[in-house]
C-alpha cells in the first residue's frame, strides 16, 4: 500500500511539472545593443508632455515696453495666412503689436481703346471704320463709365499693349493706352519695440516687405 501511494504521488508530481513547463512563457530575448549615436524608441506615453496652455501663452507674451520705443509699420502682407505667420513670429520680440487692413491699387494689365464718342451712333461708325480697315477684336462699350468707347484689347504685357496701340495709330485712329487697376486688401503690422529689433531676421528674410516709421501714439499709451 505504501509503495503504491509513493508511485501515485510521484506520478502526480511529474504531471504537475510537465503542465507547468507547457504553460510557462519564456522571457523575450534581450534586444541587441544600438549603434553609437542612435537613440532608442520611446513610447508615446513615455515622451515628454507638451507645454500647458499657460506655458504656451507665457511664451508668446510681448516684451516690456522700453523707455524709448521704436515704432514701425511692416508690410504689405497679401493674405491673412501671411499676416498670421508674421504676427506669431514678431510677437515675442516686441512690446506692442497690432495689424490693420487697407485697400491698395493692384495692376491687372493694360487697356487699349478709342476715346468715348459723343453718341452711340458715332461709336458704331468708328467700329465700322475699324472693320473696313481690317481691324479685328474690337468692342463698343454701351454702358458704364467707359460708355461709347471702343475697346481694342486687354493685355497683361505692356509691350503687347504698346504694339496694339501703335498699330492703330499708324492706321490713323486715336488709340490710347491706360493701365487697369483694382482695389485689393493688404495688411500691415504696427509695432513698438526696442531699437535693436531685427524684424527681417524674425520674419526669415521674407521678400517684398518694408518697414516704415510709424506714429507711436496708437501703440503706446500716453504717460500721465
Number of strands: 6
Percent in helix: 25-40%
Tertiary shape = elongated
Count of helical stretches: 6
Keywords:
alpha+beta, 224 residues, 6-stranded antiparallel beta sheet
Question: Any overview of this molecule?
Answer:
The protein is α+β, with helices and mostly antiparallel strands and 224 residues long. Helix content is 31%, strand content 25%. It is built from six helices and six strands, in the order ααβαβαββαβαβ. It has a six-stranded antiparallel beta sheet with strand order 3-4-2-5-1-6, with helices on one face. The radius of gyration is 40 Å and the shape is elongated. The protein starts with a helix and ends in an 11-residue tail after the last strand. About 11% of the residues have low confidence.
Give the topology.
Elements: H1 2-23, H2 53-59, E1 70-77, H3 80-90, E2 96-114, H4 120-132, E3 139-140, E4 150-155, H5 158-170, E5 176-193, H6 199-202, E6 210-213
Short overview:
The chain contains six helices and six strands; from the N terminus they run ααβαβαββαβαβ. 31% of the residues lie in helices and 25% in strands.
